[in-house]
Design goal:
Length: about 200
Amino acid sequence: MNAKKNTKKESETVKGCADDTISNKPPDDKEQEVKTDDTIDELKAKLASKEQEAKDTYDRFLRVSADFENYKKRSERQMDDFKKFANESLIKELLPVVDNLERALITSAANEQSNQTIVEGVDLTIKNILKVFDKFSVKPMESLGKPFDPAFHQAVIHEETDDHPDNTVFKELQKGYLMYDRLLRPAMVAVSKAKTKSDGEKNE
């Protein structure tokens, strides 16, 4: 009797262990693969996001670097221009002085009674001032015999003539000056104009 009871208990114990073994069975391989795939997709998405973020940051860096280089170049040009033309106002104020000295020299040279010492003194003064101008890259323009250019010449007189080609500077009333390549003052000039033919000349 006791033997039957013990056998029954042992059978129940074995069954219980089997149930526990079944309940603790590892997850199915397919479920494990699905979870692994989900994890890989998440990592790929995060990696792609970080790569895009890095690319955007690098692009911003390149733009900022380019802007900074442009700023440096622009600042250097502005500084160069400032150094070149810092004395522009002073030079402009001196130009009328040179004009008056040149007129005095022309007048004195035409007057035989003028004191030669004064003439030489005025001439020497003009040359010294022009040396200062040259030091700061200020030079008079050559206008005589050149075609009239409104960018560099100020026409004061238009005169009909056959002695010069049409629209040509034949007289310089006041010199024009350049500072480097910038116009400091236009030249005041007389410009030739082709003579208008009369009706008789046209018929010929």
